[in-house]
């Protein structure tokens, strides 16, 4: 497989990930509207943060009602996470596009990786704590430390530095000639 084919496949995969994020945001918009109209609406079960399994209400299944604080907190947290992922994929598509057009070491690529680093770090912050509260029950708060997300932020930072140095070396080479 040649370089251009790999880059085209990469862009297709990143666009697919963007589509998944947009579909998730659409589902969340539907869910918040339905919950605002009827607080007993349970389309997405937010306890998935607590046990890491997402379940969708099927038929007449009954889920415990959650407090509005719990619902809106989780809704906002997941919406922000999907939005950040959408922005991350957009920046990666921009970098892959410039690499495909043989403009690898340009200032925009380093800036894109610095943006990705910041977005991923903010994503990590959002992912460190989770909250759920059934109606009439105590708030359940869990904390976590997702090392994979931090490693992704570190990788983005290293790539940003590589692209920044590559740009500097390319500019230096152009001055020599």
Major sheet characteristics: 2 strands, antiparallel
Q: C-alpha Rg, in Å? A: 21 Å
Number of domains: 1
**Shape, principal axes of CA atoms:** elongated
DSSP summary, beta strand count: 2
Task: Please write the string of helix (H) and strand (E) elements.
Answer: HHHHEEH
The largest sheet has its strands arranged as 1-2
Question: Mean pLDDT, nearest integer?
Answer: 84
Structural class: mainly alpha
As a percent range, the share of helical residues equals 55-70%
Question: TL;DR of this structure?
Answer:
The protein contains five helices and two strands; from the N terminus they run H-H-H-H-E-E-H. With 177 residues, it is mostly helical. It has one domain (3-176).
Label this structure with key terms.
177 residues, mainly alpha, two-stranded antiparallel ribbon, 5 helices, 2 strands
Commentary on this structure:
The chain has helices spanning 3-37, 48-51, 68-100, 107-127, 147-176, and strands at 129-132, 140-143. It has 177 residues and is mainly alpha-helical. It is elongated, with a radius of gyration of 21 Å. The protein contains five helices and two strands. Helices cover 69% and strands 5% of the residues. The two termini are 34 Å apart. A two-stranded antiparallel ribbon has the order 1-2. Helix 1 packs antiparallel against helix 3 (68-100). The mean pLDDT is 84. The chain has one domain (3-176).
């Amino acid at each position: 497989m040649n370089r251009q084919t790999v880059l085209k496949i990469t862009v297709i995969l990143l666009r697919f990930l963007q589509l998944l994020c947009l579909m998730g945001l659409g589902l969340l918009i539907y869910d918040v509207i339905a919950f605002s109209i009827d607080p007993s609406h349970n389309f997405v079960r937010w306890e998935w943060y607590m046990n890491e399994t997402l379940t969708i209400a099927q038929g007449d299944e009954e889920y415990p009602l959650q407090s509005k604080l719990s619902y809106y907190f989780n809704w906002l947290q997941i919406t922000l996470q999907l939005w950040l992922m959408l922005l991350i994929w957009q920046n990666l598509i921009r970098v892959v596009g410039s690499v495909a057009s043989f403009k690898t070491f340009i200032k925009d690529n380093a800036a894109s990786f610095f943006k990705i680093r910041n977005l991923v770090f903010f994503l990590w912050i959002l992912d460190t704590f989770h909250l759920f509260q059934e109606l009439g029950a105590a708030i359940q708060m869990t904390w976590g430390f997702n090392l994979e997300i931090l490693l992704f932020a570190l990788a983005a930072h290293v790539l940003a530095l590589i692209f920044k140095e590559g740009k500097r070396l390319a500019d230096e080479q152009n001055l020599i000639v």
